């Protein structure tokens, strides 16, 4: 039963989004119950469908469109109610949905009874499409390079290609996000706090206004500011470079794809160590290839640095 309810609420939500993107403001308003409430941070509270309709009618004058929900979660409360939460972005704004309470009416249709969302970023003009793609540099830190505590096989070459992409993104004033892994265990074998090895390698070192996301686990989304950063910047797509192929690169791509962020993984800007498993041993290049193959089956696009630059120059 809960699965069918979840599907029904998801379909009602998709219909609301479609109406919004088609400019059908009245159709959106009609999906609220007469006594519905809406809390919009930082704009205030709106009680009843007339007040809610007034908000959306005024907002429509700014020409909003291209609304997308990501990282959607639906929790079923009963056979007649479910709560939806998500990240959202559109051409002129982005934010979080804390709570959409969908209620099944006597007419057999699902309606919004409570709507609670936040606007984190609001623009005066639509964000240019190319600025919705971010370069994400994963764990390119000193310990993975020569003389580091956990040297990988092809880090220098990967960093060189990452630098080429970084130069392009900076020249075009496009978003760049750095991921830095710091283990909380002071006895960790590498990436220890307050060591030279934990610092981001100088060739790809962050500059002013480029966000640095600190993580303590393999997944860059767990207990970090990454998702908030993506929402605030209005990001829709990620270009992934860095290390290690079989760990943090694999995981960020899986998590991002599951949350609704398509990923382009740059094949010659990914590094890995030489590792063995049982009777098998793998070079760094072999680990990179195996993980890129795995990611290609998981929805990521795999491209070389030059191919990506040729397509985006």
Can you put this structure into words, describing what you see?
Helices cover 31% and strands 32% of the residues. The termini are far apart. It has eight helices and 14 strands. Helix 6 (245-259) runs parallel beside helix 7. A six-stranded mixed sheet has the order 2-1-6-5-4-3. It has a six-stranded parallel sheet with strand order 9-8-7-10-11-14. Strands 12-13 form a two-stranded antiparallel sheet. It is of the alpha/beta class and 313 residues long. Strand 3 and strand 4 (81-89) form a beta hairpin.
How many H/I helices? Answer: 8
Estimate the mean pLDDT confidence: 96
Walk across the major sheet and give the strand order.
2-1-6-5-4-3
Strand content: 25-35%
Query: Rough shape?
Result: elongated
Radius of gyration (Å): 22 Å
Major sheet: size, sense and barrel closure?
6 strands, mixed
What is the first-to-last residue Cα distance?
A: 50 Å
Spans where pLDDT lies below 50 across 5 or more residues: none
**Percent of residues in helices:** 25-40%
Helix and strand string, N-terminal first?
HHEEHEEEEEHEEHEHEEEHEH
């Amino acid at each position: 039963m809960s699965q069918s309810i979840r599907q029904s609420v998801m379909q009602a939500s998709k219909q609301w989004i479609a109406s919004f993107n088609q400019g059908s403001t009245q159709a959106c308003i009609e999906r609220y119950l007469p006594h519905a409430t809406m809390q919009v941070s930082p704009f205030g509270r709106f009680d009843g469908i007339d007040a809610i309709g007034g908000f959306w009618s005024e907002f429509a004058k700014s020409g909003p469109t291209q609304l997308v929900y990501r990282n959607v979660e639906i929790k079923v409360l009963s056979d007649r109610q479910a709560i939806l939460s998500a990240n959202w972005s559109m051409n002129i704004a982005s934010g979080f949905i804390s709570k959409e309470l969908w209620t099944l009416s006597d007419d057999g249709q699902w309606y919004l009874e409570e709507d609670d969302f936040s606007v984190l970023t609001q623009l005066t003009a639509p964000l240019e499409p190319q600025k919705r793609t971010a370069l994400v540099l994963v764990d390119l830190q000193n310990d993975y390079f020569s003389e580091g505590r956990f040297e990988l096989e092809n880090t220098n070459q990967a960093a060189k290609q990452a630098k080429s992409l970084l130069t392009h993104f900076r020249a075009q004033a496009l978003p760049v996000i750095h991921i830095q892994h710091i283990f909380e265990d002071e006895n960790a074998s590498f990436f220890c706090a307050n060591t030279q090895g934990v610092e981001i390698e100088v060739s790809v070192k962050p500059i002013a206004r480029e966000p640095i996301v600190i993580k303590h686990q393999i997944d860059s989304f767990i207990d970090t500011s990454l998702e908030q950063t993506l929402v605030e910047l209005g990001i829709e797509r990620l270009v992934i470079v860095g290390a290690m192929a079989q760990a943090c690169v694999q995981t960020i791509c899986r998590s991002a794809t599951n949350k609704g962020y398509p990923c382009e993984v740059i094949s010659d800007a990914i590094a890995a160590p030489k590792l063995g498993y049982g009777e098998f041993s793998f070079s760094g290049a072999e680990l990179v290839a195996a993980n890129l193959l795995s990611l290609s089956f998981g929805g990521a696009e795999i491209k070389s640095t030059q191919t990506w630059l040729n397509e985006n120059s």
